[in-house]
Amino acid sequence: MRYVESIRDPRYTGDNRCLPCTIVNAAIAIALAAIAAVESLYLACAVLGVAAAAIGLRGYLVPGTPTLTERYLPARVLRWFDKGPTPPESASGPDDDAGDLDTERILLSEGVLRVCDDGDDLCLTDRARERWNAEIESYDGVTAATLSALSPAVERSSSVEMTTDQAGVELSCDGRWIGRWPSEAAMRADATGAAVLDAHLPWWGESTAKERSQLLTGLRLFVPKCPTTGSAVSMSENAVPSCCSSQQVVALTCADGETIFEQTIEG
Known about the structure:
By secondary structure, the protein is of the alpha+beta class.
């Protein structure tokens, strides 16, 4: 058993096993066994046995398989097996069929964002920043009154329930699902940001849940400070390794590491 454990590679086995790598290597093993069967069934069985042991203990039969799989399998094939960070869900119901909004154009035209002084990026306007900071500082917990601007499904008399687990934060009102966020900081950013948009967009009260979700997700990138701790926020771009490939992910986090926004950058 110690010998077996010594040759096992935990990087590519167990929970880290790459499914497409395993499939490709199994197909190669079967092909090799079929060739060997021409000479001898015993030889074919031996080839299959060795190949199965190699795939089981090492994760692959052909050396360099993980790198080869990432390099040569089409991206659409890798996406069948791989899964990266998912877009944040917030205040979007299953029946909403609104198309994608031009979030940047809307936030600029409505005076929420402006071109930064250096001309290379976008920033909050002074009015929007002051309002958002005030909303963050006066936030007093998850209440129907707080969330009524977040989702049209929330009435001020609603009973709000917040569920927190390892996957993030989920809200429901009177038994109806409202949204899921990667953290409480992200949820607070949207809850307080909704009040900012309500003050700037005359048509916010008539917007759909899907439209609000899209606008709030875009606005969340500009949150002036961490909504839970008041600390500064930082943005980073990292290559996140996954089963078959690596993905560039942009993340906005609080100083304590709480995630406000995370999104895969399409190549």
